Amino acid sequence: MNKKERIKRVATILFAANGIRNTKIEDIASSMGIAKGGMYYYYKSKEVLLEDIIEDSVLSREEFIENMKILNLSFNDKIKLFIKRRIDLKDDRYNLFLFSKIYENGEINLTKDEYMKKDIFFGEFFDENKKYLKDEYQVEIEKIKQFITASLTRLLTILINQTGIVVKDEESYKKMVYKYSQINLDKEIELFFNLFFKEILK
């Protein structure tokens, strides 16, 4: 991992753990053991750094959706893959942690507009597959997309909190991820699918 990627990783974890507003450039530099000036070589401000983190997440989602489209799977199985991606928190998927926590701590307004303008891929995927929705739900597709997205974020937050580990830094993040890895995600995926998709799909 190069220095820039390392900065994004540490910053993402600190933004999530301590809040975007409460995290300063010097906090990130201190956590990495580098001078504040060294941070400014890569990022001129916290806002630019946050934009880069969001962009990474958007590009990763785009790649996933494009790959999912060409898989020889039923629509139901593709939806389950999408659910898995949204709750499959791992050490290298720290962006998931950030987006769960900004909902929880009320900072979604700091990233939502910018993120939502770019992250249109799941919405497009759903629009392209409206034929799999029962007729009475097709007119509600915008509402359904928003509801599913919010519900998945909430589920991720619940599962993170179930680990019982309060994340404050990179070390505690790793411990939380280890505990998270012991959760039976297949069971959570089936439960979510049955609760939120079974009724609306043909």
Q: What does the model show?
A:
The protein is mostly helical and 202 residues long. It is built from 12 helices and no strands. It has helices at 3-18, 25-32, 36-42, 46-69, 75-87, 94-104, 112-118, 121-128, 135-138, 141-162, 170-180, 185-196.
Brief account:
The chain is 71% helix and 0% strand. It is mainly alpha-helical and 202 residues long.
Largest sheet: none
Q: Which spans of ≥5 residues are poorly predicted at pLDDT below 50?
A: none
The whole-number mean of residue pLDDT values reads 88
Q: How many extended strands?
A: 0
**Contiguous helical run count:** 12
Main features:
mainly alpha; single chain
How would the blueprint of this fold be written?
Blueprint: H1 3-18, H2 25-32, H3 36-42, H4 46-69, H5 75-87, H6 94-104, H7 112-118, H8 121-128, H9 135-138, H10 141-162, H11 170-180, H12 185-196
